[in-house]
Structures are given as structure tokens and as C-alpha cells.
Amino acid sequence: MLVAYLERSEHPSMDQVAAAKIKMCDIYWATPAHPMDSVVFLIQHKKNFNGINAPFECGFSGHWKRKQKQIIALRKKFAKRILLSDVNIMKGKVLDAALFISVSCCSIC
Question: Which residues, 6 or more positions from 82, have their beta carbon under 8 angstroms from its beta carbon?
Fold first, then answer.
């Protein structure tokens, strides 16, 4: 997927990345049944990366139910950070919509 993106954007390192060998890590907390969670794993890995020779550990539980709770919490955390980022040109609309929903909910109660 990265190679396709680099190819479309005509990135100068595309050939070098395409030629690289991919080493699959045996990760006990991986969830191949939910590929959309890959982004959550990637962001969490980037936050915890300690170098190429360090163990590949992102702090996820090996227990399925605990891991799912961790993933849901991280999805919310990362979505909030992306939506409220200063580089998001729609940040004002997101905040206005959130305020509208908050006010509407409170008036119903």
C-alpha cells in the first residue's frame, strides 16, 4: 500500500522502498481479522518505538477482550487528536458540530 502511494505521488524514494524486503514480525497481539485496526497499531508502535533492535512491543494485551477495549479507546483518542488538530481546515466546523450536539442533548434531558 505504501509503495502504491509513493508511486502515485512520484516520490523520489519509491524505487528504494519497493525493493526493500519486508520482514513480518510474530506479534502476539496482532488482529488479522480487523485490518482497519492496523492504523491504531501503527500509531501506537510509532509512539513506543525504541530502535530497530528493541523488542516490538506496543503495550497491547494478549487477551482479546482487553485488547479490544484498548483499541477502541485509542481509536477515540487518535480521532480526537486528528479532528482537533490545528492543521485540520475543518476544525472549526467539527467544534461547532460538537457544541451543537452537546447543547441539543442537554436541552432534551
Answer: 88
What angle do helix axes 38-48 and 64-83 make, rounded to 10 degrees? 80
pLDDT in tens, 79-93: 888 889 998 899 999
DSSP label at residue 89: T
pLDDT in tens, 39-66: 777 777 777 666 666 666 667 777 888 8
Q: Are 3 and 18 in contact (CB under 8 A)?
A: yes
Positive or negative torsion for Cα 71, 72, 73, 75: positive
Strand (E) positions, 6-104? Answer: none
